[in-house]
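Consider a protein example.
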Amino acid sequence: MMKMKLQSILFVAAIFAFFTIHAQEKSANDSFAINIIFPSKTIVSKAQLDGEDRSIEIIKKTDANKTFRGAIRNYGLFTLRVDYFDSATKKVQTTSVPLFIVPGNTEIVFAVTSPLIMINGVSAAPRFEYALLMQDDQIYMDRIEKLQSKLTKYTAAGNKEAAVETKKKLDAAEVDRREKVFAGYVRKNPNSPVALYAMDLYGMINNANPLEVEALLNSMPARQQNTPKLIRLREHIEKNKTTMVGAVAPEFTQADTAGNPVALKDLQGNYVLVDFWASWCHPCRDQNPSMVKLFNKFKNKGFTILSVSLDSKKESWMAAIHHDKLTWKNVSDLHFWNNEVAILYGISSVPQNFLIDPKGKIVAKNRNAEELAALLEESYKN
């Protein structure tokens, strides 16, 4: 079965000089062509391009010509998926190839007896750059995974000192990953189609710092900024600014378990933790006992919690509140991921939380109970 592995990708390095010449070719418009060459005895049933917003079937079994031509303005990473009959195993197999679609001509050659897929033409250089970027990223991901494993072990063993030190190293590794791998690539290669992918991913993993993401985006050439992918990223940045640390928390009102409206502004004057969770979310349920301890410790000092549930079934929501002893205000519109407050705050995963000061400003995001306790201790001390 033909499988793309990093070693296969890096084979392109041997003929990169040749590919780079072709990659310099620019068409007069946004048209592109992909010519796929298969071994003579390979029977291809289908090939298609899968993008983030659409899939294009480019080859059917009945097609005699294996060249696909089209036009595209959303440059960037696609996946070329090919279904073919393997005569050796006598089974239909599937292989997927990450591919950067750019204007011009691209030739893809499938080998007979190896997983090697050779790419010539305008997509060759960005394909090679992407492989190197993923190789760099894997180095940091391996480091992060090891630190995360250590942190889990130290936390479970109650080794607080080792856990704190490991958490610092984990945070530093995550910063290094986003700044050295993705931001670093964008700064060095602002005109590359791979920079669109790197910029978009940087925006995702640096979600808590929209001003940093905006600054990097603004440093890119105007043509890159005006692609659909980065236009969407800018929209996300603007949305994200409304819930960043230092912003005034967006106001909302939602019904509690009895159907009575609860407004965030009614809690102003206290430190309020707006906590997004759901009964079906295991990490949320796991952290609830520590949140109960946090609430009980500070509730008489001017602190409360307002939990927003992404549940869709009231009985499940109510049962979880009762079981986990969540005695503070709980609200939900029972619209699952379409919860209006979750949309307002840009929630795409749970648990998430926002600590709001007595003046209504967001002072912290996505902190665990121990970190929140330290912040509150310091705030009340001052």
In short: The two ends are 65 Å apart (CA to CA). The chain has three domains: 6-122, 128-241, 253-381. Residues 128-241 form one domain. Confidence is low (pLDDT under 50) at residues 1-28.
